[in-house]
Amino acid sequence: MADQDYTDGNMLAGPMRELFAVDLTAATGRCANCGLTGPIAQMRVYQHAPGLVARCPGCEEVVMRLVRTPTSAWLDLRGAVFVQVPMPAESPASW
What are the residue ranges spanned by the domains of the chain? Predict the structure, then answer.
């Protein structure tokens, strides 16, 4: 893949904001393939597919896919071991 074909993970902020109440670009994730851990904002996001495809900046494996249809959104995280979302201290979990 040519390096000019992608944008960084910050471009996921708008589309992910439609699904989640927090900014997920500040979240940390770990690639299931190579184990690289880092902010979602550092992923390489390709927009030339059905939806958005976010790849690991270390090994280029697919970590996340986000597809929006008129009636739903599909989020595939099978390429991530985890996604850790920072939460404000003043909002303790109620569950």
Answer: 3-84
